[in-house]
Design a protein that fits this description.
Elements (H helix, E strand, L loop, with lengths): L1 E5 L2 E7 L2 H11 L8 E9 L4 H14 L5 E5 L5 E5 L9 E3 L5 H12 L11 E7 L4 E9 L5 H19 L11 H12 L3 H14 L14 H10 L7 E2 L7 E7 L2 H14 L3 H16 L5 E8 L5 H5 L6 E8 L6 H17 L5 H12 L5 E2 L4 E5 L3 H4 L8 E6 L8 E7 L6 E8 L5 H20 L5 H7 L1
Parallel strand pairs: 6-7, 11-14, 14-16
Antiparallel strand pairs: 1-2, 2-5, 3-8, 3-15, 4-5, 7-8, 9-13, 10-17, 11-12, 16-17
Helix pairs in contact: 2-4, 9-11, 9-14
């Protein structure tokens, strides 16, 4: 921790965490600084007292201290973070009630593309919105270095609970947790703790596995075969996935409530986490697209929200690590799921390690080209919705949305969330336009669903049988 004078005031400033350094690394090397912008909306079908909503937002700013986070760059270009003690910025009302919903969406996507000033400036922006069909609510743009999806959902939930406690005399929401307390625990872990040393040993063994992983692409083997030819290396097993053109889009696919419930019921009956079922579907689809390759790696997102402090302190805590599985075709669907669950549990136990350090070490050890990887796709599963977290919100129709910022650092990033309206699953594919088309996204989603439902309808089918069926 250091003390800096900011605008004539001495403030305690903290180093960035590993999760923040990952985002800072991204923005340093991307000319499009909106790459860290997260644009979201939450809308309720009811008459809204906007002045009361504005006051609820101000109170939530105070209760959720991560919303008051700022960044400072030292003379040696090191980035630090600090909190401002008070936040009361203009929160305007924008009326889209007479617009077509798609036109309103396009406008909010344009807002989401506008980057934040990175230092000594607010890292979020909120507008109150009147939407068509009687929906009213909030649009929020926030910088990923200050919040992840869990933090965003938690902030929305807090605003709604504050609003409902004032308007309907509902119970006041419970206190949030301190961002600084969670930050200090993360920094203590990084400062040579025994836990970090154990995690370092684990990832060192993963990196130095005698059997090198195999790259599997969501578009088949073309990328790998092309790079093998260009490098004159027929044994190349990694592929360069970075691009000079990060222009991106989002394709969303809504799985109906009934089949969504079938997937969740299967997970509940067999005590399989939903994220493991999704990983099974993705890795089997990648296997199918790459000549039934048995060795498949996917970047798995770990939210790192195991304790109450971590769950309620906001901020950005996501780490990405490769989940590698070698699945023989003779394995049953259920046996393969157990393998994935075991590997995912190992990943969870060691997920506090710095993901940038892991990748740097792997690149050096494997002598990979800059920007090369074994993983073509990343997966995040967001299990919580506003409604599922608490009963202190009335049963009123809700809608939520995520808006693209127009660019992406990864070729393909799948986020699976539950819809606010009916708890069904929404598959949101953020993809780089130079890597994949909207049609190819639909193709991938189609095969992913085929794998999932062929597996859960008979979990004793072998993986080879499922590959043949789809």
């Amino acid at each position: 921790m250091k003390e800096f004078q900011v605008n004539g005031v001495n403030l305690q400033c903290y180093p960035l965490t590993a999760a923040q350094r990952l985002h800072n690394y991204t923005v340093m090397f991307c000319p499009f600084h909106q790459i860290l912008n997260i644009g979201t909306g939450l809308y309720i079908q009811m008459d809204t007292d906007f002045e009361m909503l504005r006051e609820a937002i101000y109170e939530a700013y105070w209760r959720n201290d991560f919303m008051r986070l700022r960044f400072h760059k030292d003379v040696d270009d090191t980035v630090y973070q600090f909190l401002v003690p008070f936040e009361e910025r203009d929160i305007p009302i924008v009326d889209f009630s007479n617009w077509q919903e798609e036109d309103a969406r396009r406008q909010m996507e344009e807002w989401t593309k506008i980057p934040f000033k990175r230092f000594h400036s607010p890292m979020n922006e909120i507008r109150m919105i009147r939407m068509p069909n009687g929906y009213n609510g909030i649009y929020m743009k926030i910088d990923h270095m200050t919040a992840d999806s869990t933090a965003v959902v938690g902030f929305y939930k807090d605003v709604l609970e504050i609003y409902c406690s004032r308007k309907y005399d509902y119970p006041a929401p419970k206190p949030m947790k301190s961002y600084i307390e969670a930050l200090e625990k993360d920094l203590a872990y990084e400062a040579g703790s025994a836990a970090r040393k154990r995690d370092e040993a684990y990832w060192k063994a993963i990196i130095e596995d005698p059997d090198e992983p195999m790259y599997t692409d969501f578009n088949g083997m073309t990328r790998l075969l092309t790079q093998r030819k260009e490098s004159n290396n027929p044994d190349l097993r990694s592929a360069v996935v970075v691009s000079v053109n990060p222009e991106a889009a989002i394709s969303k696919y809504q799985l109906e409530k009934e089949p969504s419930d079938q997937l969740m019921q299967f997970c509940e009956e067999h005590k399989i986490p939903m994220v493991c079922l999704l990983l099974m579907g993705l890795r089997t689809t990648l296997s199918k697209f790459n000549n039934n390759e048995k060795d498949v790696s996917i970047n798995s997102c770990v939210a790192r929200r195991g304790t109450l402090l971590e769950k309620k302190s906001g901020g950005t805590r996501i780490h990405f690590f490769p989940l590698r599985t070698i699945i023989e075709p003779e394995m049953t669907f259920m046996e393969a799921l157990k393998v994935i669950q075991e590997e995912q549990n190992k990943l969870f136990r060691h997920a506090n390690f710095d993901p940038i350090e892991f990748r740097s070490r792997r690149t050096r050890y494997r002598q990979m080209k800059p920007g090369a990887s074994y993983e073509s796709i990343s997966l995040t599963y967001q299990p919580l919705t506003i409604r599922s977290q608490d009963d202190n919100i009335p049963d009123i129709p809700y809608k939520s949305d995520w808006y693209t910022n127009g660019v992406a650092g990864q070729p393909l990033y799948l986020t699976v969330m539950h819809r606010v309206e009916d708890n069904g699953l929404c598959f949101s594919f953020e993809y780089r336009k130079d890597a994949v088309t909207d049609y190819e996204m639909e193709y991938l989603y189609y095969y992913l669903c085929r794998v999932l439902f062929r597996g859960i309808e008979n979990s004793e089918r072998t993986v080879g049988e499922i590959l043949d069926m789809i």
